[in-house]
Amino acid sequence: MPDISTKPYMLRAIYEWCTDSGFTPYLAVKVDASTTVPMEYVKKGEIVLNISFGATSGLKMDNDAVRFNARFGGVSREIYVPVHNVLAIYANENGQGMAFEVTGSAADGAAAAQATDSPVSAAPALSAVPSAAAEKPAAQTSSNPDDDNEPPKKGGRPTLTVIK
């Protein structure tokens, strides 16, 4: 029996922590042929998606993929992200979350898992999200073209920005 990856469980746990804490969960994704995202928002082969309850419809995070509907420029789009393409999940307000190593495409990952019986090589590598280093690349690849592309400010009180 093949080992079950911990990655989808960690994604669901961090998502639940974000929502329980009142934070906005964001998903950083490596875009390739196996992902279905609006390509006009992809920068440097990556996209960052707001996966909060208010930004998505029909969010489903299972062991294989993250699926939901979201609006981009007022147009509803179906989003499909294989779990192995997720680079990170984090709270937008403070950058806390978890980063994952994505080394190859879906075909590469499946071939590597079948080619070896070693559970160590089949499991994804997990690492902590450094607060300053990880926020900058994630903020640069925003899913919303109206975002100001600035990382969250550290310390102090949060501020509310009114958008007309």
Write a structural description.
By secondary structure, the protein is of the alpha+beta class. The protein has a single domain (about 5-140), classed as Roll (SH3 type barrels), CATH 2.30.30. It has helices at about 5-20, 105-115, 120, 130-140, and strands at about 25-30, 45-50, 55-60, 65-70, 75-80, 85-90, 95-100, 125-130. The longest helix has 14 residues, at about 5-20. The N and C termini lie far apart (about 55 Å).
Radius of gyration: 16 Å
Number of strands: 8
Write down the domain tally: 1
Distance between the amino and carboxyl termini: 54 Å
Broad CATH class: Mainly Beta
Beta-strand content: 25-35%
- What is the string of helix and strand elements? HEEEEEEEHHEH
CATH topology: SH3 type barrels
Strand order of the largest sheet: 2-1-6-7-8
What is the helix content?
A: 10-25%
Instruction: Specify the CATH architecture.
Output: Roll
- Report the principal-axis shape: globular
CATH superfamily: SspB-like
Q: Specify the structural class.
A: alpha+beta
The main β sheet shows up as: 5 strands, antiparallel
What's the pLDDT, averaged over the residues? Answer: 77
Number of helices: 4
